[in-house]
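Hi everyone,

Forwarding the result from last night's run.
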Amino acid sequence: MKVAVAGCCHGALDKMYETLELLQRRHNVRPDLLLCCGDFQAVRNEADLRCMAVPAKYRDMQTFYRYYSGEKKAPVLTVFIGGNHEASNHLQELPYGGWVAPNIYYLGYAGVVRFRGVRIGGISGIFKSHDYRKGHFECPPYNQQTIRSAYHVRNIEVFKLKQLKRPIDIFMSHDWPRSIYHYGNKKQLLKMKSFFRQEVESNTLGSPAASELLQHLKPTYWFSAHLHVKFAAFMQHESNSKEELPKATKFLALDKCLPHRDFLQIIDVEHDPNAGDSLEYDAEWIAVLKATNSLVNVTQSSWNMPEKNGLHAKWDYSVTEEAIKEVLEELNHDLKIPCNFTLTAACYDPSKPQKNMEPVHTINPQTTEFCAQFGLTDINDRIQQAKEEGSGRGECEEEEEEEMDSTGSPEEPSEYNTDNSGLSSFNPDEIMLDEEGGDEDLSTCSVDPSPDHPPEFSTSFSDIRIMPDSMAVSSDDATDSNNEELEKSSGSKQVEEKSPTERSLKRIGADENGNSGVKKIKRRNQAIYASYAAEDEDKTD
């Protein structure tokens, strides 16, 4: 089957789907599935915009709300993960995954699903070591710290994914696995993005957690985005035993969704011709969720996952074939994910803007149903209970915030020796937030949606590149000539209402004198925003 893969969508769903339609008209190629590697921006209304960690000038309503309301429907099944520029309050409603709109499915904090027999996994967010060992404690309305930490990867999600034993066909992460650049055309990468050089040479670019998963899962394909540059690599894995056949991963990072950008990739993936056309649960993943349910943590206390070090009675949470069989029996061998999308927030109305709409903490019926079916903890319900009981962050929220440093995250020891999400260098193609200080007030700045004047589309998009059958790239700089040949040999065309379950929570983030802690944008970030604004002007010309 044909799978389309997109990088950072940034809410431009109309552009993305129009590009697929253009591909079909020009080349008679119709993808069966679309994957998006984060920064999807499922923004339903003005309150969602307030929960997106970007400066106010980049808070654009874009076009997702039209798919959420039912005005439009995605023409192809779309599966996506979260990035670091998301409506975090919306995605937080679906920690185990779910439908954000008809035919558009979010994988959750981490997840695995199946489509036509193809096993697809992913992990949302980006890596930051100071939040990695915490629980998912954040909830809207967010403050200056939690609006960012909400999208930081947690060790429990990595731990769950590492319990998988069965092969993964496709895996997605937003930030790149650390070290992957050593397996592709590194010279060409640094030519396009010279500001990555220091981190590439020190091997600190990318996520160490994603690298750990890459080495453990060894998927056939791994797709990422985040750095707004296209990059291919080929990683040969070592066998764990003499009996195990060697495995290799074809890695591809995608550019962002903009005119004149090669932001879509089409690949052919072997599938089960006898499988149905519905998105399905993965039985092993459900069994892992059940096995690790006792490890769910909704506090900001740092803790380590169980390991074989003499401190834990149990450290192996991988599941047996019997446990997988039990899941299948529970579902009567019907793994189809129910189409139970439900509106949980009012949809944006261009004729009636509500710039002062405040976000609320919502319990999504999809999550409630999923947890009830499989006996899992509803993370949002647990957070709500902790607040009502005055435990966790609860009534002590403001006092705890005052004790924290400017990042909102006490410096805890980490199993990784760096705190690098892959963008500490100046990257003019990325809307970057200063993790060490503070940008403009992210919780109270004005909202200025402008969905009715999108940039011209039609023929301004570059062609879509069809991935070649082979991405044979060896390691390090010896790959330079190989990767150039890879591009030449492809022989492919380039085309370019609120829910009754909503519960309002106490607003947080101001100090005892009522100050919001607004800080000026640092000069380094001013340069980045100015560069991005110039690019935006180019789009509308």
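The radius of gyration is 22 Å.

Cheers,
N.
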